[in-house]
Specification:
Order of helices and strands: HHH
Radius of gyration: 18 Å
Number of domains: 2
Helix content: 40-55%
Largest sheet: none
Structural class: mainly alpha
Number of helices: 3
Length: 103
């Protein structure tokens, strides 16, 4: 028994009944985004850290684990602890570029 088992007040069937259509729609949105990337006129973002992180997240979702939310949040988060000398951008990217910060 994992530490989260039995902490949701809804049954599995209630969760499926309530949220399946919404989750299906979100997955179709992700599939459409990835299809558009594959069909793009200019394939200039194949190594961009954001779609790379998204594909890693999809692999993580297919694993059987009880901490998928935490794992995904950490995948997309900046885990560095050193403050920046200056702001390096105006807004968030939604994922962290670990390759840029490795060396």
């Amino acid at each position: 028994m994992n530490k989260w088992e039995g902490t949701c007040l809804l049954s599995q069937q209630q969760l499926v009944d309530e949220y399946f259509i919404e989750m299906r729609a979100r997955l179709l949105d992700v599939a459409a985004f990835l299809d558009r990337l594959d069909r793009s006129i200019d394939c200039n973002a194949e190594e961009d850290f954001r779609p790379v992180a998204l594909r890693s997240a999809l692999r993580m979702l297919s694993e059987s684990a009880s901490d998928r939310v935490y794992s995904l949040q950490m995948l997309f988060s900046d885990a560095t602890t050193e403050p920046l000398a200056a702001l390096d951008r105006k807004s968030a990217f939604g994922a962290f570029n670990y390759q840029k910060n490795e060396g």
